Amino acid sequence: MCNLYPDPTFAHSSVDVAIHEVTGLYELLRNAFKKLNHKIDVVIGESGWPSHGHVLDGTPLTVSHLVNYWRKLGDWASYKRVSVYFFEAFDQPWRGEMNSYESHFGWWFDHGERFIEKSNPN
C-alpha cells in the first residue's frame, strides 16, 4: 500500500501535472515491489487534494480542484485497474487551524445534523 500525494511544487502547476506525478510514482513503486514479489497487489492507500486552506507556494486549494483531482485519478485507476482509497471522507477541523489545508481533505463537511457533499452543497 502506497500513500501518494502530489508534491506542492507540481500541484501548483495544474491538476494534470499532479496526476502525472502521482501515477508515475505509483508505477515506479509498483514495478519495484513486483521485482520483489510478482504476486503482490500494490494499491494507493491514501491520496487527496485539500479543498481549502493556505499553503506557502500558492497551490490552488478549491473544491473544483479537489473534484478534478479525484475524477482524473479515478479515471486513471479504472483504466489501469488500480485500487485507490481517498483521504478522506470528512473534513477534520481538529487537524490544525481552520484555515490549515490539513483540515480540508474531506469529500463531505459537517453541517450540524448532517454531512454535505462539497461538490454539491445544495
Extract low-pLDDT stretches.
none
Strand order of the largest sheet: 1-2-3
What share of the residues does DSSP label as strand, in percent?
A: 5-15%
**Main sheet?**
3 strands, parallel
User: Alpha-carbon distance between the termini?
Assistant: 35 Å
Oligomer kind:
single chain
Described by the principal axes of the CA atoms, the overall outline is globular
What would the average pLDDT be, to the nearest integer? 85
Work out the count of structural domains. 1
What is the element string, with H for helices and E for strands? EHHEHEEE
Tell me the radius of gyration: 15 Å
Helical residue percent? 25-40%
What is the β-strand count?
A: 5
**Class by alpha and beta content:** alpha/beta
Output the number of helix runs.
Answer: 3
Describe this structure in words.
By secondary structure, the chain is of the alpha/beta class. It has one domain (2-117). 36% of the residues lie in helices and 14% in strands. The strands form 2 sheets. The chain has a 3-stranded parallel sheet, covered by helices on one side. A hairpin with a 2-residue loop joins strand 4 (108-111) and strand 5 (114-117). Helix 2 (15-36) packs parallel to helix 3. The longest helix has 22 residues, at 15-36. The chain is globular, with a radius of gyration of 15 Å. The model has no long low-confidence stretch (mean pLDDT 85).
What key attributes describe this structure?
122 residues, alpha/beta, three-stranded parallel beta sheet, 36% helix, glycoprotein
